[in-house]
Design goal:
There is one protein chain. The chain has 365 residues and is mainly alpha-helical. The protein has 13 helices and nine strands. It has a three-stranded antiparallel β-sheet with strand order 3-4-5.
């Protein structure tokens, strides 16, 4: 059931959003809005990290049902990202490059895509982002005064994975240090949720803590804990993952459905959390934890709500930014509905792929 639904949403997103880069052959990128303006069709506005999640969704789909056509699309999107980024793999934002690194590594594992060169550049830049200001952590971007979960979380997940797949052996310790820093500096003791980040003064002291709570911050912290639980006998990482799942269920879901965060970058937030909840649902039981069941329940309830509240549109179903509410269909590129955003559609696709993965793994057990 979930595999079929994910396939329908995949086809709809790709039909409406996937286009060549500047009409060049063997390239694809996701147009940032649908219906799209001329500027959007030419990829004038560049959302680097949205494209990383498009690549990640394609890898999800290839795991669900491999086919040569999608394999070609994965390679074309990868080429399109580098071309639109003016021949570079990196930019100044540590969170952006961590997301692309994760997507490229998964594409390599799924398709055998050669990724040594880009991952060497990305992980080298992430290693350089660490300083002792505010007790550790990497910056949000180069030359900034802000350190946050959105940068340290995906960087920790990537370095933990890369340590055993071609990176430096010390990358796992770097991932552990980043996650320990988030635990010390940004966990709300009242709820167990992660705050966004903190500003650092010139002397290295914390100047201000931004206590905004975002769903995707919980997702990347959870993902890092799950990665670090492998081979760990202390149980501390499993306990932190369990605490995060409980906190999400108590504070960031309504009747088990994850809350949205509007459009733009926020459109991706709930989908990212769903991805790492599904990962936790699969891997925590290996450590004797019962929290995987709660994580799976959040994913399946969210996917169910997103599917029920879909709207019929050209190319296939359109999903909304709040999965518990009916989606609305934009009439033109001037119609400023949040549903236009590629980020919103990727997030919905992501939660359906997460549900399909749980369905697939469950059928094998």
């Amino acid at each position: 059931m979930w595999a079929a639904r994910a396939a329908v949403v995949e086809r709809a997103v790709l039909t409406r959003h996937l286009r060549r880069v500047w009409a060049l052959p063997a390239t694809r990128l996701g147009v940032t809005g649908w219906p799209s303006s001329t500027r959007q069709r030419f990829h004038t506005h560049w959302n680097y990290w949205w494209q990383a999640h498009l690549l990640d969704c394609l890898v999800d789909a290839q795991h669900r049902q491999p086919n040569p056509g999608r394999s070609a699309t994965i390679h074309r999107v990868t080429r399109g990202i580098r071309l639109r980024n003016l021949g570079l793999w990196t930019n100044s934002y540590y969170d952006d490059i961590a997301w692309l690194g994760l997507a490229l590594l998964r594409a390599h594992q799924c398709e055998g895509m050669p990724v040594r060169a880009p991952l060497d550049r990305i992980t080298a830049q992430l290693r350089e982002g660490w300083t002792d200001h505010a007790g550790g952590g990497i910056w949000w971007r180069r030359g900034d005064t802000f350190k946050n979960v959105p940068a340290n979380g995906p960087a920790a997940v990537l370095l933990a994975r890369w340590a055993g797949l071609g990176g430096e052996r010390s990358d796992r310790q770097r991932a552990r240090s980043m996650t320990e820093w988030m635990e010390r500096a940004l966990v709300d003791p009242a709820t167990g949720l992660l705050w966004d980040g903190l500003y650092v003064g010139p002397d290295g002291a914390v100047r201000d803590i931004v206590k905004t709570v975002y769903t995707y911050c919980q997702g990347v912290f959870l993902g890092a804990c799950v990665e670090l639980a492998e081979g760990d006998t202390s149980g501390v990482w499993v306990a932190r993952a369990e605490r995060t799942i409980r906190a999400v269920s108590a504070h960031l879901a309504d009747d088990g459905v994850l809350r949205g965060r509007g459009g733009g970058d926020g459109g991706l937030f709930a989908g990212i959390l769903a991805r790492y909840l599904a990962l936790a649902a699969v891997r925590l039981p290996e450590h004797g934890s019962a929290a995987g069941e709660a994580a799976a329940g959040l994913v399946l309830a969210s996917a169910g709500a997103a599917w029920r509240n879909r709207a019929p549109a050209q190319g296939g179903p359109l999903l909304g930014p709040e999965w518990s509410r009916p989606a609305q269909v934009p009439r033109s590129w001037r119609h400023r509905l949040i549903e236009r955003d590629l980020s919103v559609q990727l997030s919905g696709w992501m939660v359906l792929e997460a549900a399909a993965m749980l369905e697939r793994i469950g059928s094998r057990s």
